[in-house]
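INTERNAL TRANSFER SHEET
From: sequence group
To: structure group
Subject: Fhu operon transcription regulator

Please process the attached sequence and return the structure record in the designated field. Keep the field labels unchanged so the import script can parse them.
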Amino acid sequence: MNFRQLEYFLAVANAGQITAAAQQLHMAQPPLSYQLKQLETDLGVQLLHRTSSGTSLTPAGQLLRDYAQQLLDLRNRADSQVRSLGQGLAGVLSVGVISSSIGATPNAKLRTLTRHYPKVQIRLFEDNTYGLIDRLEKQLIDVAIVRTPFTGPHLASKELKSEAMAAVVPHKYDHFAGATIQVEDLATVPLIIYRRFESLFQATFRQQAITPFIACTCDDARTAVQWANAQMGVAIVPQSVAEQGSDPQTSIRPIRYRPWRTTLKLVWPEQVTPSPLLQRFIDSY
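Return from structure group:
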């Protein structure tokens, strides 16, 4: 018994005539009759009563009709779902994101992707940049959004957004003259810094021979902004995080210093050929 025989049997069962079923199947009557006989021989039962006016189902034929319809429906669903998965139209994608990726995801293209392909499921894992790179190396996630600077061998990448650092300045510390500030201006205020950039900041301070007061160091850029909002010091964070998290009690001052620019990147293992679903996700950025 095979799917083709089941299709032929269902066509005859629904049409009530072998001739009519053959016309619907665009085939001659003798090959159709042969296939039906072969199906009955394989199963060892009679499926059809054949008369000069047409055909009717035996009890065994009635039972097979129900099973045949279910089997063909299941085959069609399996075919559709497997093809969808292979074409990136369905499946589960594990995506790592950092806290400071605010504003980069989800974007309009990604929203369009999930709207057009509702069977795509995205599982998010939040961690810092190096935690996500470690997850990629262990194949625990498929792709990640991370922030420079970082070292990660054997990673393919796509640049998403480059931005300057900004100071989130509580009003009581807001004595800066211009809309933007220089690194040396930071020597006069208590700083709240995101530990991710601590070594970069400290290297710059040493180069410029200044010794600012680091009032607080934290593991999340959003936490740095929250502490600035609470008037605890001036937070130094990526501009997009500053714009998303600051409140009316603070001002945002871009910092004019190119080495402190940072870039969000989409990264995935370069030795892995992206699946169709992963490639659609990459193309959405």
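Handover comment: Residues 40 and 239 are 74 Å apart (CA to CA). Residues 3-86 form a domain with the Arc Repressor Mutant, subunit A fold (CATH 1.10.10.10).
Transfer complete.
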